[in-house]
Amino acid sequence: MSKxxxxxxxxxxxxxxxxxxxxxxxxxxxxxxxxxFYRAIIAEFVATLLFLYVTVLTxxxxxxxxxxxxxxxxxxxxxxxGIAWAFGGMIFVLVYCTAGISGGHINPAVxxxxxxxxxxxxxxxxxxxxxxxxxxICGCGLVKAFQxxxxxxxxxxxxxxxxxxxxxxxxxAEIIGTFVLVYTVFSATDPKRNARDSHVxxxxxxxxxxxxxxxxxATIPITGTGINPARSFGAAVIYGKDKAWDDQWLxxxxxxxxxxxxxxxxxxxxxxxAVKALGSFRSNA
Length: 285
Known about the structure:
Layout: E1 3-6, E2 16-19, H1 35-65, H2 79-98, H3 108-116, H4 122-146, H5 148-153, H6 167-188, H7 191-196, H8 200-203, H9 205-223, H10 229-239, H11 242-246, H12 250-270, H13 273-284
């Protein structure tokens, strides 16, 4: 029951066997003694720092370009489309760069979803989230250090619920947006697909980045698009205004719920994890 056989026919490639990798242990003390564990944490910190630095600069630059006090052209700047490209493009680049080192999470919601699916251990998940939050704080701190006046004037790239939307709408936008992202992560990195199609690991960062791009197009007008608790937390810490903190819970609870739903859907519905578990239980009974 636990082994799926992929049959490629009697061509030059022959048949290929596939077996699901074993689930990660809840706690693995051995990994704490390996340099690869700490190297992965550093990679997550640096990647999240770069992510926030580039994307927050893009947001602030756009707002300054459409500010009537500085520019009469209200159609100038990169626009929402450009902001979405900045977020999606950076995720594409950074996932490509770090996937072989840390898995390229760059997002506590992604880490949480993979932890629920037993892809990473608890210590690794915890340290990744800490590194991501610290990286986000440092990335926003760099933006403020270089552009302090613009940073303060144009909101510091902080996520806030837009006027005209209630908190339920904002929470729903964050849940659905994160579901799209984490579901894409699971699908793009599915080991069964990787075993069948050797090109998939190389292409995996592309759909993940594109998912971030599409979600930003849909939800920037509502919440500024969180779907990444570290991104929202880092900007709120450095910006420090009440509004950013008043809505902060939306950008933690929503993404975590969305990630949990995506993990359940992929592992227990699409991959039939619940059916396999039931079959294993019956065979042992």
